[in-house]
Amino acid sequence: MKLKDINVHEQMKHYHVNGLSISFIEKSRITGTENYGLLESSSDRNVSNDSIFNACSISKFLTGMLALKLLEDGHFGLDEDVNKRLVTWKVPENEYTKNKKVTLRNLLSHQSGIKDPKGSFSELRSDIGPPSMLELLQGKSHYCKVPIEVTFEPESEFHYSDAGYCIVQQLIEDVMKKPFYQVMNEYIFKPLRMESSFLPTTMLEIDNNKFSCGHDRNGQLVEGKYPIYPYPSASGLWTSSLDLALIVLELMNALNGESEIGISKSLVQEMITPQRGKCWTGLGVFLEGSAEDLEITSMGWGIGFQCMLVAYPNLGKGAVIMTNAELGVHQMDGIIGEIYKSIR
């Protein structure tokens, strides 16, 4: 899989993108990484294989893979009531949970009956600091001022939800009795040698030598340079395109019965199967097509950054595209879409 019929430098100039990194997968192996531009405008910091970008909501794909691993190890069930395992906080019971309870499957596929409160889950404010997950879920934080609750019957509607993934994080922390970042390090990052992947919740955890700065649609540095989303499971991941390619490759290997971290073929197949009649959503990924041509995607878009991973697991090919630009348009309408079309 290579770029064709596209002048990357021209596209970067047109879309005011300072830095870009693309990793490719073909025949179920990583075949290369192409890097362009700068980590910070008007600097001499070039993008390289270990350059770290804000992956934003691609974090949900990583959380999905971690959940699969813990499911495989028997720590909880995919279709059990999550309140059976939650300790620190529980999903409030109400009229919408009488007939159907919230499950991990619901949360991972955005069908839990939970809708994010308006204006919630913004970037970190240094004057306030990061919230605890309990504060978030109770609605006692600047970042989420309304208690999280079920507002329609689980599985009746699809609503993309950061709050749902925060519940997944709390579930994992309660069951494993460890912070989420530590569980991710032990079960995903270290076994897969994802050495450029981090879940920072404060600026003190940012080493700016390898970390990219965020830029706006005009290519100018955003305020604070390194926007952080203090919700690791939903949008907190900082990583390289090469590291993300490693986790995509792990999914493909698991489908072939060769998982490095011990996820079964049947369970990873569940991840890329349409959930509860919604053809576009799997467990932590989005779907299009079927059979051999099945396409899975995960996209990230936050202040100063935009990125996308796309994979064809049954064909053994894929790509990860990361930019340090907030383009102001959907991925498919900007440079990422141009690259996607050229490698598809």
Structure description:
This protein is an alpha+beta fold and 344 residues long. Helix content is 27%, strand content 15%. It contains ten helices and eight strands. It has helices at 8-15, 59-72, 104-108, 133-138, 162-176, 180-189, 232-235, 241-255, 265-271, 335-343; strands at 19-26, 29-37, 53-56, 237-239, 286-288, 295-302, 305-312, 317-323. It has a six-stranded antiparallel beta sheet, sandwiched between helices. The chain has a two-stranded antiparallel ribbon with strand order 3-4. Helix 2 (59-72) packs parallel to helix 5 (162-176) and helix 2 crosses helix 6 (180-189). The longest helix has 15 residues, at 162-176. The chain is globular, with a radius of gyration of 19 Å. It starts with 7 loop residues before the first helix and ends with a helix.
